């Protein structure tokens, strides 16, 4: 049995403290031993009893409680991960200054595990030079400071500074427990364009041709790249129940033609294109303006309607051609995805190698598909093929873990080009 990880959830005194309750529950349900260390002001928003009930551990806020246990040292020393959510401007300032005036800041000084801050504050506070400098200081020391989400803040205000949803924070926390080096802030200044999800090609106002893509892998790549410092635009097709990643500009589309137009619009500014979307290969040549009736209804023939199909544009191949023609001067890396099955002619890798050569992209992520594999699941595995002939197996794990390996490969590819 896998050893339970010890996770400390620090909670600072902001209105978003209520979201920490969901975060604690999600981390506990993932099998971790979770202990909540709030600031005294955080308890003005959520009572200690709530955190104790959710975590199963007592809650203390000062170094003068249970002094005989030396909690301000022991909690940090024993932790596998510390997550602070919300991390207010005040908490970030105290952490950057190395303050130790309560149990949470003392824990941050003694922790030698990964530390993840999830900021939450008004936009003006997030962009204030003092906060910007404090965030830079913490990142330089090795802490992970997430980019906040944009949206409704306290009162009528909206903008950057909203706490990411608990699901997003717990996803990144679990990634850090899988691999502590998953979120270096190493892609600052890199513009990354990601496509995700399936397209829907209309047959009539009711029906469409689609596929089983959930968009989870593309969303995971966008999320990881953004938290590693990249400027990310996500072009999202059909997805179900996915949260738009914090710090990412999201463009929602429906059809393959719309995806082609969106990529064409955004690609000239991108340094990296990640084509994770499952784009329909065919669309109906004619879209009915009214619902196609069942054949047994009065006034209709008994024959099933014939639907003539035409090929859609190959968005990945078009991007490769555009780069070769000098139309994408900023584009340094193009990453394709291949969902393959073996057949009488060859196995999954045989077809993937042929696709890599045919498409002309720099990297190709390969998934073997089938029942319970690749589509509509949370875990995945596969291979990463390079145009230089390099092939790396991607171990089985969460799609966020796989995304981190893909972003690693993109970062290494960019470094080789720069070198």
* Mean pLDDT across all amino acids: 91
Number of strands: 19
* Physical arrangement of strands within the biggest beta sheet: 12-11-8-13-16-17-18-19
Shape: elongated
Structural class, from helix and strand content? alpha/beta
Distance from first to last alpha carbon: 44 Å
Quaternary structure state of the chains depicted: single chain
Task: Please compute the radius of gyration using only Cα atoms.
Answer: 24 Å
Describe this structure as you would to a colleague.
The protein is of the alpha/beta class and 419 residues long. It folds into two domains: 6-178, Flavin prenyltransferase-like (Rossmann fold, 3-Layer(aba) Sandwich), CATH 3.40.50.1950; 191-418, CoaB-like (Rossmann fold, 3-Layer(aba) Sandwich). Helices cover 33% and strands 23% of the residues. An eight-stranded mixed β-sheet has the order 12-11-8-13-16-17-18-19, with helices on both faces. A five-stranded parallel β-sheet has the order 2-1-3-4-5, with helices on both faces. Helix 1 (19-29) packs parallel to helix 2 (48-55), helix 3 (71-78) crosses helix 5 and helix 9 (216-227) crosses helix 13 (399-418). The radius of gyration is 24 Å and the shape is elongated. It starts with 5 loop residues before the first strand and ends with a helix. The mean pLDDT is 91. Its cofactor is FMN; Mg(2+). Residues 192-419 are annotated as: Phosphopantothenate--cysteine ligase. In the C-terminal section; belongs to the PPC synthetase family. In the N-terminal section; belongs to the HFCD (homo-oligomeric flavin containing Cys decarboxylase) superfamily. Its EC number is 4.1.1.36, 6.3.2.5. One of its GO terms (cellular component) is phosphopantothenoylcysteine decarboxylase complex.
């Amino acid at each position: 049995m896998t050893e339970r990880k010890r996770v400390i959830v620090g909670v600072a005194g902001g209105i978003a403290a209520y979201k920490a309750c969901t975060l604690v529950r999600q981390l506990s349900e993932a099998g971790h031993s979770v202990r909540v260390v709030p600031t005294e002001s955080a308890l003005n928003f959520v009572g200690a009893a709530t955190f104790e009930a959710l975590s199963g551990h007592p809650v203390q806020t000062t170094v003068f409680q249970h002094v005989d246990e030396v909690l301000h040292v022991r909690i940090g020393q024993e932790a596998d991960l510390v997550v602070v959510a919300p991390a207010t401007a005040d908490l970030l300032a105290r952490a950057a200054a190395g303050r130790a005036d309560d149990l949470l800041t003392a824990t941050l000084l003694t922790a030698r595990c990964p530390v993840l801050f999830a900021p939450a504050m008004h936009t003006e506070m997030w962009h204030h030079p003092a906060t910007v400098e404090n965030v830079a200081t913490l990142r330089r020391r090795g802490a992970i400071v997430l980019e906040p989400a944009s949206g409704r803040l306290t009162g009528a205000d909206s903008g950057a500074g909203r706490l990411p949803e608990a699901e997003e924070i717990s996803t990144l926390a679990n990634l850090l427990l899988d691999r502590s080096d998953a979120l270096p802030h190493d892609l600052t200044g890199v513009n990354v364009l990601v496509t995700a999800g399936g397209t829907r090609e209309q047959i009539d106002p009711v029906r469409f041709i689609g596929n089983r893509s959930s968009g989870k892998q593309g969303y995971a790549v966008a999320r990881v790249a953004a938290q590693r410092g990249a400027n990310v635009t996500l072009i999202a097709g059909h997805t179900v129940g996915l949260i738009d990643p914090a710090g990412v500009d999201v463009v929602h589309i429906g059809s393959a033609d719309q995806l082609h137009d969106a990529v064409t619009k955004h690609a000239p500014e991108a340094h990296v294109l990640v084509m994770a979307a499952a784009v329909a290969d065919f669309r109906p040549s004619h879209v009915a303006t009214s619902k196609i009736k069942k054949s047994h209804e009065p006034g209709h023939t008994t024959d099933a309607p014939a639907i003539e199909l035409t090929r859609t544009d190959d968005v990945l191949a078009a991007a490769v051609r555009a780069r070769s023609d000098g139309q994408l001067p900023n584009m340094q890396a193009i990453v394709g995805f291949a969902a393959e099955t073996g057949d009488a002619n060859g196995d999954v890798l045989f077809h993937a190698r042929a696709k890599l050569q045919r498409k002309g992209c720099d990297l190709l992520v390969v998934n073997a598909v089938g029942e319970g594999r690749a589509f509509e699941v949370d875990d995945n595995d596969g291979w990463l093929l390079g145009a230089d002939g390099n092939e790396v197996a991607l171990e089985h794990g969460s799609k966020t873990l796989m995304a981190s390996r893909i972003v690693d490969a993109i970062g290494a590819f960019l470094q080789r080009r720069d070198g």
